[in-house]
Structures
1.
Amino acid sequence: MSSNNDNSSKFSSTRRKLLMGMAALPAAPLLANTGLFSTPAFAQAPATSAVNTTGLAVTDTEVTVGILHSVTGTMAISETGSVQAEKLAIEQINAMGGVLGRKIKFIQEDGASDWPTFAEKAKKLLVNDKVAAIMGCWTSASRKAVLPVVEQYNGMLYYPTFYEGLEQSKNVIYTGQEATQQILAGLDWVNKTKGAKSFYLIGSDYIWPRTSMKIARKHIENKLSGKVVGEDYFPLGHTQFNSVINKFKLTKPDVIYAAVVGGSNVAFYKQLKAAGIDLSKQTLLTISVTEDEIDGIGGENFVNAYSCMKYFQSLDNPNNKDFVAAFKKMWGEKTVIGDVTQAAYLGPWLWKMTVEKAGSFDVDKIAEASPGIEFTKAPEGYVKIHPNHHLWSKTRVGQAQADGQFKVVFETPELIEPDPFPKGYQ
Amino acid sequence: MFSDYSLAELGSIFIMQGFAGLILFSVFVLMALGLAIIFGQMGVINMAHGEFMILGAYVTYFTSQLFLHYIPSLFGIYFFIAMILAFFASGALGMAVEWLMIRRLYKRPLDTLLATWGLSLILQQVYRSVFGPREVGVELPNWMMGSLPVTEVVEVQINGLFVMGLTIAITIAVALLMYKSAWGKQVRAVVQNRVMAGAVGINTEKIDRYTFGLGCGIAGVAGSAFTMIGSTGPTSGQLYIVDTFLVVVFGGAQSLLGTIASAFTISQAQSTMEFFLSGSMAKVLTLLGVVIILMLRPQGLFVIKVRR
């Protein structure tokens, strides 16, 4: 990790200076423009007609993007962090001079935790507002609702959540991990360091946990020659887990592997603790608890559990220190930053860099220019867009501490290639 | 499934499973009691029941913060004070709602469904705007966490015992209030014949307001207690509303005993099936069973004989 970072941060800091210079130069003459002769004479801020051939909301001084998350309804719990991260990224980009000499303006729409609303608002952003890109969606259901819309109207969606894979689109950049990236490394780790052979799989009952568990089971049985001693799914919002906790006690698995989400999450861990299951003795590995969730669960109920994802707030690298400091400055000392929040922060940055590489805001050109884009200042370290529009990223295992933060106990040495259609796992 | 385990292990698990069923039973009774009073006695379909519970949960959260910051020495007992405050907060909100909205709708019981559904959405958004969209973690005093080891495998959850004790206490209190006190007699009189009750000098409006307030107050206490086992967030109330209505309707809306019997049946069925089948399947079979029984007995398990 370190070698990558060192090289790249040098590269990026020179580029940052360059950009700032670029941005400062054209500002004054542009303001003086009457609009009639609006083609700026500076190469640094290319003419609008050249960078925008498809009628997007791009002017000589501004470019408009959309933010589409739920700020009301059930999902507001999770999506609030993503909105905050995207606004922070946009503000930072603007402070550096914007994109191709244009400040980013955002239009925020509320998906209201309702999937048809997501589709409708996406259409509004693309058709009425002509946004150059949309940062948005959180649940797979909302993404599935928005996908046909961005494909039909040729928009660009930056999607932040870790998800089940089995999807790829020209019009979407997936900044979170797909399932195999998140799952396999964690299972290998727990198998190797804890000698884990028997697993109990438990999740909420919808597409993401089911697909994830399917991948986990195949990996446990075929690659780790381990055993799955139980597999259970509970309806979303289920609040009573005493029966399944008794099953843990009976089957005594080496690892409880959990993908319980939402309000159920809180109930699950509180009841585990109440039932006397001590997570320092019983290994529990989850793929669904970030720092955000621990806020609701309570640090004392989750201490010593392991979480497997690509980002933790406690990551010790200069990029992340800057990011955490900036985030807290903007949104308050008490806010916590989870995996998805960080992934959402990547969206505007990746888009900006792609636009600059393509030299255009046109969606077709951005889709084409995306593969190979590197973001060296990413809080998670270093990421790169794969030709399948997912990100190369590392996977990490964190051990929960009583204060609600994670101690990183494992990190894959290499970036893991995204593989949304994994062979042998379907 | 059981061939790999010793008899002692199986015995312990069955004891624990029985206990899990009892906890679920207490939880069901606690969340359904408030609704049983409002729906059963007044005929108001209160879809905002879950939000009254969550108000209690938030009151508990703030009480815990208050104790933590100002009187940490008494943190061990804050939960009792929080429950009392939750009762009065939810009860007061309930009475206000009754006065502003419900009393205009007594003659249109189906409209109360729509109105209280709207109320629940409004309350959720109010919680979200005031307390933030994220869930809050309610810290418990140490003595309420963990479990009492009875044998090596059998462990009894302290919060489970707490909920059970609370449920028994509240059930007895409600039963005494409804069937032994003068006020309870007035409530039942109003339920049976509003006009006649008014004619013999009972202030029916006042009775309505206090009954509704009592139901909401009990919901608040339930919400306060559930901070031990569940989440506290703007939409957490929605997690309970389906089960609550299931218990009340299945039990026969007007009977307190019916509510208890129905809570017992559903909780035992669900808890046992969750152990032998998967969680989602258990829920499906429970709902299926309830549907079939309600088809055969549309009034629910218990019916009070009233002259119509």
2.
Amino acid sequence: MRKFLKLGAAALALTMVSGGMAQAQEKLSIYHWFEYIPQELLDKFSEETGIEVTMDTFDSNEAMLANLKAGSLGSYDVAVPGDYMVEIMINEGMLDTFESSELSNFGNIQPQWVDVPFDPGRKHSIPYQWGSTSFSVNRDDFGGDINTTSILFDPPADLQGKINMLDSQGEVLTMASLHLGIPQCSQDREQLKALDELLQGAKPHWASFNSDGAKDVLVSGDAAVGMIWNGFSAKARAEGANIEYAYPKEGYLVWMDNVVLLKDAPNRANALKFMDFLLEPENAAAVTNYARYTAGVNGVDEFLDPELKTSPEQSPPADAPAGVFVAVCDEATQSVYDSIWTRLKK
Amino acid sequence: MAGGPAAGGGASSSTFAGIRHWLLLPSWLVIGFFLLLPVLLMLVYSFLTKDFRGGVIWEFSLAAYDQFIFDRGLFGDEPPTIEWIYIQIFWRSIWQALLATILCLVIGFPTAYFIATRPQNTRMLWLFLITVPYWVNLLIRTVSMKFLIRDNGPLNEWFLAAGLLDSPIRMINTDFAVQLGLFYSYLPFMVLPIYASVERYNFALSEAAADLYADRWTALRLVVIPAVSPGIIAGCILVFVPSLGAFLAPDLLGGAKNFMIGSLIEEQFKGNAGNWPFGAAASMILLTMVLIVLMIYARQQARGEREGR
């Protein structure tokens, strides 16, 4: 009995000590994409600053927005939304502001990424990584020209029924708009009807909708064509898929993910430390080496894996058009987009 | 359903008579807080106005139910006709769930019967073997199934090597794959209740039927099945209800090409649509359908008990 008491007392003391330590421990809570930051980098941050990091992950911008709206705002310090989602979150009043003077590495941001349309002057966000969204084609299955969106929406016979699309309304509908040559967020009824018809006609050629498995379906050979982000495609190629990333002449998407300071962040100062940390060229390069996209930070070149610099997923051919960002539509157009998407997946 | 814990209390025991209500309090709190309250919340949300990009505006509105029932064209300004899209999605889910239930029953009943008729000391081993795969997370099992049936997966390779096929058959991203996934996910929910019933069944009744010149099929149909029917019905419900809301198998094995009820609802909260009232309304309609099934079951049970005594 006495032994038990002693043990109990010891356990109690231990919990009190560790509880006290947890109190003193500085914290940072991150809401991030899946498979997008190397654990070693988080460990390095903890080591340098003594801040304990916890991270939850999401698989789409919309899922992140829904979760934050459903009451998670106030429990995270930073999140990593894409370009259009930054604009939406600013409009919804979900982001805190900071002064450029609060970040000692603010000057490392490449000039073209400071005055971005979705956050002019960078008052809420810093660049994380940017890249493009297009599609990749398995060269064992198809030898022809792949630099056209017809591969997705009007595929040659060899590729029909072997196409995986991203399960993401914004990216699919924007790609389809590029194929038709109509503006994004068009309010023209004929154009919207054409968009609807295009997707209805293309669907029988598609095998699946899958975003988080977009890489695996290409590696396993389940799909011969896969709509995909460029870094993910590079990873698929590294895992042995004989695929080529397309730069369609009709256009393709670019995107930029950004670290944002959330409103009501419980550890605002630590969030800013983390942002500063990510703007260090060496750390930005570590993310790039892992995720295979491109950092928006000056001075990363010397830290990059050599093969990244010549990676075809990062080097559009000279005659390729520039990529476009997904636009944020108003409520009326968005509701038509929602209907088109529901009709597509009915 | 909510009456379950209360009805289970032993009325004959006077020991706890005074504090019985207090002892039940935790159950009521759990049921109230984690079951009734969220459902009530969804009910309220389904009658509110949707906010752009998720969330609700606290104004009464029937728009969510209207959207479910009426089609007003792509731009929302045509005269309303009946909306078939959601009926189609619900029907697809119901049909898949029904098929999965029948498949589980056809495979599960003989399995359960087989186990229950083994010698006492080996039954636990058989049951254990049935449940072993289910110690693994459902997601992992579904992904493994995907690996097995893909175009150049082991199953197709085997068929080709054995000379049964000339070219791989497409199984992944088909309704067949979804069926396989649902069947595999929920089979034990069919086997275990039926096993429990068959184990309690008095096999002397089968012998009596045989003595009265019933052949084996007749004895099974007229004696065994009626006697174990509570287990069969419980198994069917346990398979049907989760299959109805399943989205893992349709998404991973079916390719997410067509909405099921579960993924339609998910899209309203997690997808671009951001239409929470509509998601809530669809959930309410699903819940109503499930409740109807359960009520039919409760009625059958009650009738069975009246006839049995």
